[in-house]
Design a protein that fits this description.
heterodimer; A: MetI-like fold; 2 strands; globular; B: nine-stranded mixed beta sheet; 19 helices; 9 strands
Chain lengths: 294, 445
């Protein structure tokens, strides 16, 4: 009822909403609709011939054993990146939040990587881990450890997970730090006086009170691992060796942009869209119940 | 005339907007947009060639624009065509040839352009292995060859010396290569040999040299229904040799595409099979004595090897709803200039790409380029040493970039011991054929 008091003009609320609606329409609904249209058509690269093929593109994608492998790779990759970046960011935030000398210098340094473009970050990692030109890569080989991520699935996967997580740690760190600072000192002090140790204080007070932040970051990190790690993988491994580090989003790019298979690529985008919508819905439905919003 | 007036009006408008009015001399010029995919320093050298043309006459102005790597340039050209805004000329890498040819009305074949504009272009002036790659089945030139390269071997003479090998007698056959690699390893060289562009150097070239088909239907020239032939025992044996050498530590897999290129000039690897275009970088960076040699062959498969095939790119003429006859004429003038032997020879000598015309090759010889630069003649000689057969004309396969990737992926799995050479190539054929069938389906009629 209060709303009516604020907006006398009937058109004004719509007008104020319009920019947001326009952005959604132009940058989400329109491309998504195009992807849907493309996913049921077969088209040559130049768009000269196109025919309706129904669900054939989906059939081809889902019956491709390599696609199922890519799904598995994506799960391993995303879970690892999410867990690793959330875990280490939380640890670092707790440490940086304690009373230590030069705390703000640590904080600045930890936030720094976020300012790097994914491709730049990947190139930095390459200069460290490349077996021929990387400092650490060469050192490992000189020490007799056969390090070559170009021909070792496990090493390649480890490297892209590390690089992708490292990039996201800063983002998580900022939010955790803010979350930590919002926890009332008095509660922690009271627990201290009652004789609770640091670990106990963390698990019974800090962690539950951080849960809204953790939940938010969980959603963001999963979306990050799914969609925004393309640059890292592209610059480091190109999805190789074999298909060991090819994630769903990398394959969408590969099939659509490099291989000119617009139908197949669009079908994959549609599948990916469904997966992420489902994941987010699940997170909101089940994980959020456990979240404690003060 | 309408168009000329339109152009004059727009030029005048531009001149006004830019704030100067004395641009009368620009009014008569026909503008040609030219998109290319060569990064520096090659891109700059290419733009010098274009400038040479612009300065040589006053009717046509060619505007070169760098559009990113070859695949990115291709993507940009396709997107522009879809938007009705294609550039007049686009540089397209050799593996995009089949895609361009199947583009039908999106491109204007060069032979047609030249005859329509009465410019004439002598196809026979071009080196057959170059011409073949860009010709239709009945031998008509579809694109203008420009920067072509081929695969050759570069080797480190100092490392050869150290291993007790004759630095002036590079290995000519694969058994000799294997032998040399083992000796280099025994002498303490950590990377005796490597290769870049894995599919191009180890399958496309190896097939051509031994007159073995890479794919059926004359490597795809015969039609869209081609299937891959690389799981033939000959290729399996070749891949097995590479795998064995790699296991022994006598060969290093340097990564996809041209990732291995840097391993030779840095002195890391003693032998590399790479694009002849790598020469410029080696001249600049290598701090050791090196030599260039033709690719090795398998003596049990062929007594003397055939010509190798090309890589690199060609210039394609694109169509657009707004294109005028004058513009096509301007493109033809540009192409005629590029086909001149002196332009071709200069480009070859400046860059390390091969001469694409026979006269250009002769001209470089006459100027003493090969006496001053020993080994620089190897690529052109290897390209011209035999008459082309249907296995050495090149490849005409749809979505070849994707097929190249598939072969790289399967090779990587085999190098890791996850599958045998036979399984790798069977998988490559199976997956590659799916790609070819999809291309056939999308481009039929």
């Amino acid at each position: 009822m209060q709303r009516r008091v604020i907006f006398d003009n009937k058109a004004l609320p719509y007008l104020l909403l319009a920019p947001q609606v326009a952005v959604t329409l132009i940058f989400f609904i329109w491309p998504a609709a195009q992807a849907l249209w493309q996913s049921v058509h077969l088209q040559d690269a130049f768009g000269l011939r196109s025919q309706f093929v129904g669900l054939e593109n989906f059939e081809a994608v889902l019956s491709d054993p390599n696609y199922l492998e890519t799904v598995k790779t994506t799960i391993v990759f995303s879970v690892s990146v999410t867990v690793l970046s959330l875990g280490s960011a939380l640890g670092l935030a707790v440490l940086a939040d304690s009373k230590i000398r030069a705390a703000s210098a640590y904080k600045t340094l930890l936030i720094w990587p976020y300012a790097l473009a994914p491709a730049v970050a990947a190139v930095l990692w390459m200069f460290i881990f490349n077996p021929d030109i990387g400092i650490l890569g060469r050192a490992l080989n000189n020490l007799g450890y056969a390090w070559d991520y170009r021909l070792n699935d496990g090493q390649a996967m480890t490297m892209v997970i590390l690089a992708a997580s490292w990039k996201q740690v800063s983002y998580n760190f900022i939010f955790f730090l803010a979350g930590l600072q919002a926890i009332p000192r008095s509660v922690l002090e009271a627990a201290s006086i009652d004789g609770a140790g640091a670990l106990r204080r963390f698990w019974t007070i800090t962690f539950p009170l951080l849960s809204p932040t953790t939940f938010f970051l969980l959603v963001v990190d999963v979306v990050y691992a799914f969609f925004e790690t393309f640059g890292t993988i592209h610059a480091l491994t190109h999805g190789g060796p074999g298909k060991a580090t090819e994630t769903l989003i990398f394959r969408v790019y590969q099939d659509g942009v490099v291989n000119h298979d617009l139908g197949g690529s669009s079908a994959q985008s549609v599948i990916l869209m469904v997966i992420v919508i489902a994941l987010t819905a699940i997170q909101f439905r089940f994980v959020e119940r456990k979240v404690h919003y003060s | 005339m309408l168009t000329r007036r339109k152009l004059a009006v727009s030029t005048a408008a531009f001149a006004l907007a830019a704030g100067f009015t004395g641009a009368a001399h620009a009014q008569q010029k026909t503008v040609v947009e030219f998109w290319h995919g060569l990064p520096q320093p090659l891109g700059g050298q290419l733009e010098q060639v274009v400038k040479g043309f612009n300065d040589s006459q006053d009717k046509v102005q060619v505007n070169p624009t760098f559009k990113g790597s070859y695949p990115e340039t291709m993507q940009a050209a396709i997107a522009a065509f879809r938007a009705g805004n294609a550039p007049h000329v686009v540089q397209m890498f050799e593996v995009g040839t089949a895609t361009m040819l199947s583009a039908g009305p999106a491109i204007k074949p060069v032979h047609q352009l030249m005859s329509e504009t009465g410019s004439g272009l002598d196809a026979a002036a071009y080196i057959p292995a170059v011409r073949g790659y860009y010709s239709s089945k009945d031998g008509k030139m579809m694109a203008l060859p420009f920067n072509s390269s081929t695969t050759i071997t570069f080797y480190n003479k100092d490392a050869f010396q150290k291993a007790g090998l004759d630095p002036n007698k590079p290995p000519a056959t694969w058994p000799e290569v294997a032998d040399a690699a083992r000796k280099l390893k025994a002498a303490g060289v950590t990377c005796p040999m490597t290769f870049s562009w894995p599919t191009w150097t180890q399958f496309e070239q190896v097939g051509a040299l031994h007159d073995k088909p890479f794919a059926s239907e004359a490597n795809g020239f015969g039609g869209l229904n081609a299937t891959l032939k690389i799981n033939d025992p000959f290729f399996v044996k070749h891949l097995q040799t590479l795998i064995d050498l790699q296991k022994e530590g006598a060969l290093r897999y340097g990564g996809r595409d041209n990732a291995a290129d840097s391993l030779f000039p840095s002195g890391e690897c003693a032998m590399i099979q790479a694009s002849s275009g790598l020469r410029g970088r080696i001249v600049k960076e290598a701090k050791f004595n090196w030599g260039a040699a033709p690719l090795p062959y398998w003596p049990d498969a062929i007594s003397s090897p055939k010509n190798s095939i090309i890589g690199g790119a060609a210039f394609w003429v694109m169509t657009s709803p707004k294109r005028t006859a004058d513009e096509y004429k301007a493109v033809a003038a540009f192409f005629s200039y590029l086909a001149r032997p002196e332009v071709d020879a200069k480009w070859h000598m400046d860059t390390g790409y091969v001469p694409v015309t026979l006269q250009g090759f002769e001209l470089a010889k006459k100027e003493g380029f090969y006496d001053k630069n020993p080994g620089a003649e190897v690529p052109a000689e290897q390209l011209t040493r035999t008459a082309t057969t249907e296995n050495t004309m090149g490849l005409r396969l749809g979505n070849l970039p994707e097929i190249r990737n598939i072969i790289q992926e399967e090779m990587e799995k085999a190098f890791q011991g996850q599958q045998t050479a036979q399984q790798a190539l069977d998988n490559a054929v199976k997956r590659g054929d799916t790609v070819l069938r999809n291309f056939e389906r999308a481009n039929k009629n």
